[in-house]
Amino acid sequence: MAKMRVGVYPGTFDPITNGHMDIILRAARLVDRLVIGVAKNAGKGPIFSTEERVEIVREEIASQDHGLLERVEVRAFDNLLMHFAMSVNAAIIIRGLRAVSDFEYEFQMAGMNARLNPKIETVFLMATDRYQFISSRFVKEIGMLGGEVSHFVSPAVATRLQQRFGAPGAERG
Ligand code: ADP
Fold first, then answer.
1. Is the separation of the CB atoms in 75 and 55 below 8 Å?
2. Do 46 and 20 contact (CB within 8 A), yes or no?
3. CA gap 25, 9 in Å, rounded
4. CA-to-CA distance for 14 and 46, rounded, in angstroms?
5. Pocket of ligand 1 (CB under 6 A)
6. Among 48, 95, 128, 138, which residue has the most ligand 1 atoms within 8 Å of its CB, making it the best to mutate?
7. Which residue's CA lies nearest to atom 17 of ligand 1?
8. 5, 26, 71, 98: which is the annotated catalytic residue?
9. Percent of the chain having pLDDT more than 70?
10. Out of 11, 69, 94, 128, which could bridge 27 as a Cys pair, Cβ 3.0 to 4.6 Å?
11. Residue 20 a catalytic site member
């Protein structure tokens, strides 16, 4: 039997955006099994807990009508990405790349990871043009200030953000 090709798509997903979802759908076509690794990433000060982020990503996947469900799995991880990738027998790590901004960081990370385990290849998928400018960071800032996030995230995620920050225009102390 041919070996299953497993890919890992790691990220903070705080919260998952339309840009992430686009990468997930495209990545799922390249591998037999896709593991979405939700990094605990406490250092980044996420607004949603790891458990919440995992739950949100699972809900997003479940809401898609792409027959992807059986091949995509969502897991939290708190260890070194390369160790996590090895633990799920991944052949590739998938990352999304937006314009210029991501390059330096991603280039370094891919280089370091290649040193840690040259057998696991990092594969970059270019952001689709209409999602190019979407980042979790700005989605959070817009949400925090009561702005409209529906262009960037699913309705379910927009609702979560509203619940977290209070309804738009609502008074906050
Ligand atoms: P991290 O903290 O690991 O950068 P993120 O959740 O911010 O986690 O992003 C996960 C991955 O998704 C990264 O490779 C990032 O470059 C990519 N990504 C984020 N937003 C987009 C987008 N709009 N289009 C394509 N890729 C994206």
1. no
2. no
3. 11
4. 6
5. 10-13, 17, 19-20, 23, 41, 95-96, 98, 102, 127, 131, 134-136
6. 95
7. 96
8. 98
9. 95
10. 94
11. yes
Ligand 1 centroid, distance to 15 Cα (angstroms) = 11
> For residue 50, what are its two tokens?
């790891």
Closest residue CA from atom 2 of ligand 1: 12
For the cut 90, the answer to whether the pLDDT of residue 21 exceeds it is: yes
For this structure, is 95 an active site residue?
A: no
101 given a catalytic annotation: no
Query: Which residue, 24, 19, 96, 13, is CA-closest to 53?
Result: 13
Instruction: Judge whether 21 and 48 are in contact, CB under 8 Å.
Output: no
Q: Can you read off the two tokens belonging to residue 147?
A: 């702005």
The CB-side HSE value for 140 (13 A sphere, CA atoms) comes to: 13
pLDDT tens digits along 66-80: 787 789 999 999 999
